[in-house]
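Hey L., structure's done. Input below.
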Amino acid sequence: MNLLAISMSPRKDGNSELLLSAFLRGAEQQGTETETVRIAEQEIRPCNGCGICGKFGFCPMEDDFLALSESMMKADAVVISTPLYFMNVPSVGKAFIDRCQIFWAAEKRTEANENVALARYGAVLAVAGANKGLGGTDLFRGLHDTMACFFDAIDMKVNDELYVPGVDEKGALLNCPQILDDAEKLGRSSVSSIGDASTSK
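Output:
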């Protein structure tokens, strides 16, 4: 089994990546092979709304998105880690998500449906500096909706979520050993779900 981890943080080794590292440590303890991609280190241009993916089934932009999309199709699981920026993912992550329109378009193209064989397991790990949203609203509500839409577009669902508020300064999560332990446990427990997804493809 293999797991593709996608970090959407512009800040290397920040709190969201600490959370991700703990999750991956747990998954690897159970024999899962993992690969981590940092979106901030990829060349992924924003979607320009040309509509070619909907008409012809491919994206004409020649950048790192193609290789990453191929890795997504081969993975048994995809895990997203991100900090919260204005109640959603950072701009580098949103550019990647918007380019995944190609997967949604493929589902609408009958001739492409048999070629879309994505994993069914997905997880979201996120941190935020604040403790609550404006007016006391759910701080992670916007991210939750975006991730649900994203995973649905790539023919997956969100099996696990771990949202951590109140960690702002770089490395602040190191002062929260229980949360890191929870992330590691979640990584270990994810393996059975990954196995179920892999055998059902």
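The CA atoms of residues 18 and 173 lie 7 Å apart. DSSP finds seven helices and five strands in the chain.

-- N.
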